[in-house]
Amino acid sequence: MKVSSRSADLLGRLGLMLIVYLVFALHLPSYYSPAGVAALLDSAVLSGLVALGVALTMIAGEMDLSVGSLAALAGILAVKLFPIGVFPSIIVVVLVCAAIGALQGWLIHRIGINSMIFTVGTLIAFRGIALLVSGEKTQLVPLEDIAATDILIGKFGIFSVLSLALFAAAALIFAFTRWTLWGREIFAIGGGRSESRAAGVPIRRPIMIAFALSAALAGLAGALLSLKAGSASPLSYDSLLLEAVAACLIGGISLKGGKGSIVGVLIGLFCIRFLVTGIAALGAPFWAQSLATGLLLIIVIVAEAIFAAAAGRFRLAMRRPAPIIKVPA
């Protein structure tokens, strides 16, 4: 059976993820115990939800750098809205964040400004709003009501409510990008704006949708984790963006846009989580976790460049006409 280049790419990344997992599983029994697997899944929820959203903006040829600050703001709002109920507060926060993201996308398209520059500004602005709304203090769920958040720590075998939310979000985003017109438009504009415009593909709508979903997923992550912990700090999640982007790049999302898959994002996410969690479990200092993640990302990027160059040379060789051999009379 013929394997497409896209499938081969995903299989290669999956193989890398399994190698990272097995290296630590051989030394850490917790890596294959039910409780250990459940902890690994839970550790991926925050960066996983954010990575799914950031991936959409990267596929569209843009970048949302504001997700960490927005997640912190979402956590503050979720705790403040807690009196209306756990799930109602989460829904309201997600809708508010989606509207904020859609506005960001509209402004980026309308003004014609680079999204990285624009979202650096909103990153700072959202952090300021979080500090303003919280009064520069950590917000706490009232102690007498903390039992209401127990619904977020429920377990279903190795899965928790939060890890199920991650996989449900991934499944929905996968279906959206694979089988809907609006999802395919995100890939189209990332692959080439001029070509998409010439083909009649709208530019504003997919940009707005990509940023709305990115903000909504960041808001969902911030709300879920803050309510589960029973507290929210306006200065939290400052390093969240780095792991999310690293997961996207390791998973095959292209910085040039138009390339990547949601399955790849999950593979990149768990590559990092298996690596970081394993190093921490072995007692290594925090700097070793960051160093290992950076080295893994560099290895993947260099390997991609080498394979791309080799594939280019192979295609060029295949296009060359065969030499004409003259037979003497």
Task: Describe it.
With 329 residues, this protein is mainly α. It is built from 13 helices and four strands. It has helices at residues 5-25, 34-43, 45-59, 67-80, 86-111, 115-134, 161-179, 181-191, 193-198, 204-229, 240-250, 262-281, 286-319, and strands spanning 139-140, 155-156, 159-160, 231-232. Strands 1-4 form a two-stranded antiparallel ribbon. Helix 1 (5-25) runs parallel beside helix 12 (262-281), helix 3 (45-59) crosses helix 8 and helix 4 runs parallel beside helix 6. The longest helix has 34 residues, at 286-319. The radius of gyration is 22 Å and the shape is globular. The N and C termini lie far apart (46 Å). The model has no long low-confidence stretch (mean pLDDT 90).
